[in-house]
Amino acid sequence: MSNILEVQNVSKNFGSFTALNSVSIAVPKGSIFGLLGPNGAGKTTLIRVINQITMPDSGHVILDGEPLNPMHIKDIGYLPEERGLYKSMKVGEQALYLAQLKGLSHKEAKKRLKYWFDRLEIGDWWNKKIQELSKGMAQKIQFVVTVLHEPKLLIFDEPFSGFDPINANLIKDEILKLRDDGATVIFSTHRMESVEELCDEITLIHKSNKILEGTLIDIKKQFKTNTFEIGIDTKQHLILEKELSEKFEVSPANFKSLGDELKLNVKLSESDNPNDLLSYLCNYGMVSHFVELIPSVNDIFIQSVKNN
Amino acid sequence: MNHLPLIIKREYLTKVKNKSFIVMTFLSPIIMIGLASLVAYLSQINNDKERTILVLDESNVVQDVFKNEDHVTYNILENMSLKDAEELAKQSESYGLLYIDKLTDIDSISGQIKFLSEESPSLSVISNLEAKIDKKIEYLKLQKKGVDVKMIDAAKTNVSILQETFKGEKTSKTDSVVKLVFGGLAGYLLFMFIIIYGNMIMRSVIEEKTSRIIEVIISSVKPIQLMLGKIIGTSLAGITQFVAWLLIGGVLLFVISTVFGFDVGQMQSANQEMMHSAMNNSEMTMQIHDLLTSFYHLPITNLIIAFILFFIGGYLLYSSLYAAIGAAVDNETDTQQFIFPILMPLMLAVYVGFFTVIEDPHGTVSTVFSFIPFTSPIVMLMRIPFGVPLWQQIVSLLILLGTFMLTVWFAAKIYRVGILMYGKKPTYKEIIKWIKY
User: Fold this and answer.
1) Would you place residue A28 in the very low, low, confident or very high pLDDT band (cuts 50, 70, 90)?
2) Helix %, strand %, coil % for chain A, to 5?
3) What is residue B274's predicted lDDT score, i.e. its pLDDT?
4) Domain B49-154 classified CATH 2.10.109.10?
5) What is the ipTM of this complex?
């Protein structure tokens, strides 16, 4: 799979403050790429560099094989975190204006807007002013405007903020559909559950430096600790717990269940086979729970940021 | 991609379609003309008022100059004490009482004349009285020295100097007044235009910041394009409004002057009264013919071309600064500290224009200020009707153009960084730092 976007050793300083310190990322074509990092890590600066809003001090950005240039503006759709619309302008006029700024003709923009407005069932908003709409409604229009010119690369910064769960789901499905139709999505958010759900690859930026990158699966493999969460219905609680803690690292587990079974986290070493543990447990009673603990993106995020 | 026309179109249309803009466009000339008519009407009432002035002349030498005039009646009192005269003035509700003390020596008379009245008298009434008495005493003094008054009268001449330039253009004092009016009007128009529409640009930049649309726009267009589009679009809206004002004002003026039958153009406020009487005294009556020839003497073509160029140059120079201010702050209340330094040179230009150009259009001060880029548009526009050498105009324009480009570059830098900065009010130091980003 080739990369649609390659950021190579990009640095950016604002006075004495370093916003990006030689950051490189590669975004594969057709993927959903998670750009993560704590507040003030430099994500927005990186996104602005990709959008040619900010010029990097050094480094290069390659979009679809070419160095970034003004012609690429129409290839990128950007939904910034700090977003808004002209309050006193009508929805339709405004959407047309923004679409034309992205290089669409008036006629084409109108046609596509009609399609999208019907699709999201917001057709009757055309003549309303933005100040008459709720925040979520305005967000929907911003989403439409971002994707309308069918860019190759979509950049969403916190796309779900301000949406109720139903609309958030709607937008999520639209993002997935855009990906399936061939677009590449860069997705920046602090909502880790949506990263979990959507992203193929992630990059973590912390204090202007990239500290983690890879596919979600690889990163999880890298962070997993071979720990299993077990629940067993047994009369020999104490004996079992004692025996287990002699062989493995054991800590109390915390998951919900209906019975009053013994709940433990058991950490195996590299050479141990989980099957052996399972068959061992079977001798003591009925195993009701046996799950490998896979680190969540949330855990990975917190752990990586703390360690740096 | 060049989006400039698109941005200009949006800026123009949103301004022009804005309700308060429309209301102001129609209401302003109505209010202005209404006020002007009111003032004209009131001052006409004022002038038409019959005034009676009592004169008590104990010296008995001056009183014969007080002959009844159009709106003033003089009642010469005789054989009466000052107290009684005052009483009489109060009872008869006269405008006032002119008292001239007993004369001991003609040379000391000037300190012995009083005007007593209920309220402070009008400036024109007093200066009228003074002029009359001055003349009389002058005659008396001359008579005392043995000069024949008739001879003086006969020797009186009225010199009117014919002015002509070396190129053979004839000019007159009327010309100077017309030039002054034209220059002043052009300079003042530019001043007003910068303040009104510069502010409008600033507000529109702030609006984009507060509504948070700026980052969406800026990912599609270059900041400098957006800034220029704003400036040009707003200026076009401004020109539209100005033209509408002129048209509406013209129509209203015509309607009012035909319906009510008085000429609003000839209204007189208090200090104009003084000027007017001064002009009358020097026997300078403006005639239509004089005015017309004065128009011909104006360098019309030069005036128009220079007006357009300096107007555009000056306006763009200042409006790019206004745009930069708008970008630097989050809301209008924070703009004060930055607007002040912009207003300073503007005010200076207007004052220099009105005080030194009138006095000496080609003097050192006026000439220097007509080259300094921040004051040159206004000062030069005021000077041009008096005839400014072409090389001076061109040099001044080039300096203006150079400064304009520098300012736009500088403003664009601030704008580019400023539009993405939220939350805090920047200091000058920070803004200078932005230029280096």
Assistant:
1) very high
2) 40, 30, 30
3) 47
4) no
5) 0.81
